[in-house]
Amino acid sequence: MGGEADRIPDTPLLDRERRLRGYRINKMAMGLGDPANRAAFQADEPAYLDRFGLSDEEKAAVLSRDWSEMVRLGGNLFFILKISAVDPVRITEIGAHQAGMDHESFLRDRLGKKV
Question: Which InterPro entries match (predicted)?
C-alpha cells in the first residue's frame, strides 16, 4: 500500500486496496451514528473496537485519535469524523493534526484567522 501510488506527497490516495483495508474502521465509525453505539464507545472504547475486529494498528490509531493514521489505514475522513463528534473534537483540530501543525498556527496560517 502507498509508495508510488501516493503521488501527492504525504497524502494517502484512497485506492481500491486502501478502501478494502479500511472497511472495518469505516464500519466501526459509521456505527457511531447510533446513540447506543456511541454510549458503548464512550463506556469502553477497546471493547467497542473489538466488536468490529479492528487490528491492533487500527485500534491504536483510534484510541490515540491519530487522524492521519486512520486515513492512512483506509479510514474515510467523512466516516472517522463521527469519532470526533463523540469526543468532541473541532474539525480544525483534525486539520491541524493532518497538516502537522498546532491548532493556533493552523487557524492563523491556513485559515487566515486572528488568534
Answer: LigA_sf, Xdiol_dOase_LigA
Domain 11-88 has CATH 1.10.700.10: yes
Q: How confident is the model over 47-80, as pLDDT tens digits?
A: 999 999 999 999 999 999 998 899 889 888 888 8
Maximum distance among all Cα pairs of the chain, rounded to whole angstroms: 43
Could you identify the residue written with the cell 493532518?
A: 98
C-alpha cell of residue 72: 492512512
DSSP 39-103: HHHHH-HHHHHHHTT--HHHHHHHHTT-HHHHHHTT--HHHHHHHHHHTT--HHHHHHHHHT--H
Cell 468532541 appears where? 88
**Model confidence, pTM:** 0.73
